[in-house]
Amino acid sequence: MGLKTSISLFLLIFLFCLFSSSDVHAKPSPGPASAPISSLAPSPSRANDGFSRYAQTQPFDPQDIDKIDAAPMLKSICADTDHPPECIATLIPYVREDKNFEPTSVLEAAVQATTDQAQEGLALAKKIHGDPSSASQPILKSCLDACIISYSSIIHSNQKILDAIAAADIYTLNTELGANIDNVDACEDAFDAAEIESPLAHVDDVLGKMVSNNLAIGIDLIKF
C-alpha cells in the first residue's frame, strides 16, 4: 500500500469517527412546550351566558338608587343590602309593580331569583365539564365538580329557606342563608387552590352578591 493511499485511508477513518462522535453527543431538539392548564381552559367569556345583564362595572353611589325605575318600597329594602343595584336588577323580573312590598315577600322573590341563577350556573358548569376540550384537563374538571356541588347546594339551601319562611322558622332561615355564603365561595375557592383561571368567575360574582343580599334582608328585616 502506497504512502498516499495510507494517508487518505487514515483521513477517512478520522473524519468518520469525528462526525459519528458529534451525532452521539448532540442534544435532541426540544419538542413543543406543553401549554399550561389555564391557557387550555374554556374561555371565561362563556361564563357570561345569562349573567351579563347583572354586571356591575362602576362603583355604586347610594344616591344613584333614585335613578333606577323600581317601586319605592323595593328600593328601600334593597338599599339596606350590600349590593343595591344587583338587588333591584335581579328582583324586578320577579315582583309586581303594584304589589305592596314587605321584606318576607321580597326575600321569597330574591331566593327564587338566586335559585334560577344557580341553575344557570349549574348548567354552564356541566356544559364546560362535558366539553371535549376539558377531557384532557383533570384539574379543571375537578374544580368544575366543586362548582357543580356548590350550585346544587345553593339550590338545596334555597328550598329550605322558602320552607322556613312558610313555617316562620327563623333559626333555619338564618342558618341556610348563612350556609349559602359558604356554598357560593366553594367554587372559586377550588380554582384559587388549583391556581388556574375560573371560567365561572362572573357567575360566582353575581351569585355571591345575590346570596349576600339575601342574607342582609333575612337577618336585618325578617321578624317572625
UniProtKB/TrEMBL annotation:
Domain of life: Eukaryota
Transmembrane parts of this sequence: none
Keywords: Signal
Domain Pectinesterase inhibitor: start-end pairs: 69-217
Biased composition (Low complexity): 32-47
Cleavable signal peptide: 1-26
SUPFAM superfamilies given in the database record: Plant invertase/pectin methylesterase inhibitor
Region Disordered, residue ranges: 30-63
Pfam assignment, any one: PMEI
The keyword Methyltransferase appears for this protein: no
Alphabetized GO MF terms: enzyme inhibitor activity
Keyword Signal attributed: yes
PANTHER family to which the protein is assigned, alphabetical: PECTINESTERASE INHIBITOR DOMAIN-CONTAINING PROTEIN, PECTINESTERASE INHIBITOR-LIKE
Family recorded in the similarity comment: Belongs to the PMEI family.
Protein name per UniProt: Pectinesterase inhibitor domain-containing protein
Native source species: Rubroshorea leprosula
Lineage, broadest ranks: Eukaryota, Viridiplantae, Streptophyta, Embryophyta, Tracheophyta
